Amino acid sequence: MRGGRIGRRLVLAGLAVLAAACASPPPEPVDAVAGQWLGRFSLVLTEPGVERQQEKAQGRFELRAHGERRALEVFSPFGQTLARLEDRPGRARLTTSDGAVLESDTAENLLERALGWRLPIGELPAWLGARATDPQAPGSDWRVRVTRRFDDGRPRILEADWPATPRVGTRELRVRIVVDGP
User: Fold this and answer.
1) Are strands 34-47 and 53-66 parallel, antiparallel or unpaired?
2) What's the pTM value of the predicted model, to 2 decimals?
3) The domain containing residue 20 runs over which residues?
4) Could you give the residue ranges of the DSSP H alpha helices within the chain?
5) What number of other Cβ atoms are within 10 A of residue 36's Cβ?
6) CATH number of the domain that 49 lies in?
7) How many structural domains is the chain composed of?
């Protein structure tokens, strides 16, 4: 039973990986952004305790956005669908590979319930399409850096840490997102 909970948490953390990079307001309104992004992610989740435990995961993702609607799929490194998040105004739905379904009024509320922390996933499409500098995330507990960009200035590799300032006895998440293409 414990392995199932850990696996589900890592799948959900994979969704968190993709949302982590959007910790600051986008340079343009979300409803002005449409597109598709494909990429890879890796994460390390560190649990506090006498003996700190680390769990690692990696996979692939596909994000599609049109106006205020978003669909995010997370895949294993071998291509198996692990989870699908559908987000539209007033309704968010997360379906995992084992058939579990979670619903809420927003993707942020849904992921907060599933993960225990709030993620501004609705801003991700605008942020991935941005050509701005690293996000300054006032009020956010994420530290996000763009470490490489495409020739046109869009983010290619993003790295994020939660919390931005680690504290003794807290869970930590380190993520890396590589965007393979729009």
Assistant:
1) antiparallel
2) 0.74
3) 2-181
4) 2-20, 107-115, 124-128
5) 13
6) 2.50.20.10
7) 1
